[in-house]
Write a structure and sequence with these properties.
With 179 residues, the protein is mainly alpha-helical. It has seven helices and two strands. The longest helix has 22 residues.
Amino acid sequence: MAATPSLELLERALDQAGTIITRIRPDQASLPTPCTEFDVRTLVNHLVFDMQMFAYSIGGGKHAEPGDDLIGSDWNDAYAAARVSLEDAWREKGVEGTVKGRLGEFPATWAVGQHLADLSVHAWDLATATHQSTKLDQEVARVSLDWARGALKHGVTQRLLRRQARWPERHRRTDQHYR
């Protein structure tokens, strides 16, 4: 049975991405990432934007516009501040009910899964681009993939698989037909 995305797993994904971001050197900002629409700096900015948007859809408040520079010269502080806002919003709301986003209204558990998958994939993207270890949290990766299989269109799921962290052997065997 597939595990359900949870706030505990989301917290682990936030920790994982935050750790990778703290290890990025300034000279790596313009490196390309496997997510071809972003270099390292713009991908970190994208993660901060996403956290702001999720916090906004959960609890309201302010948010930036796509393309705004949200990280300035202190990526770690920008990431940490966005994370605190997101976690506060989830703590206040919980995972019951729905959240409203740009694409409509969704179950809160769906939103947790979407953000978990987004963080998981982009943490791997950043680790890969900056030559850090891609041996990431296997449970976060597995639950992200399971969520994506059930919630996203097939092409999106294929991209997630291609960029996902190393899977335990039992998952690699069953995932071959998706690659």
